[in-house]
Amino acid sequence: MKKINSAFISVFNKENLESLVSLLIKLNIKLYSSGGTKIALEKLGCKVTSVEDITQYPSILGGRVKTLHPKVFGGILNRRDKKSDLEDVEKYDLPSFDLVVVDLYPFEDTVKNNANEEEIIEKIDIGGISLIRAAAKNYKDVMIIPSKELIPNCKSIIEKNNGYTSLEERLFFAKKAFELSSHYDTNIFSWLSTDSDESLKISISESQILRYGENPHQKGIYYGKLTEVFKKLNGKEISYNNLLDIDAAINLIKDCKEPTFAILKHNNACGIAIDNNVYEAWKKALAGDPISAFGGILVTNQELNSKAAESINELFFEIIISPNFSTKAIEILKNKKNRIILELNPKNLKNNHQYRSILNGILAQERDILIDSEENLEKITKLKPSKSQVEDLLFASTICKHTKSNAIVLVKNKQLIGIGCGQTSRVDALKQAIEKAKNFNFDLENSVMASDAFFPFPDCIEIAAKEKVSAVIQPGGSINDQLSIDCCNKNNISMVLTKTRHFKH
Question: CATH code for 229-347?
Answer without folding.
Answer: 3.40.140.20
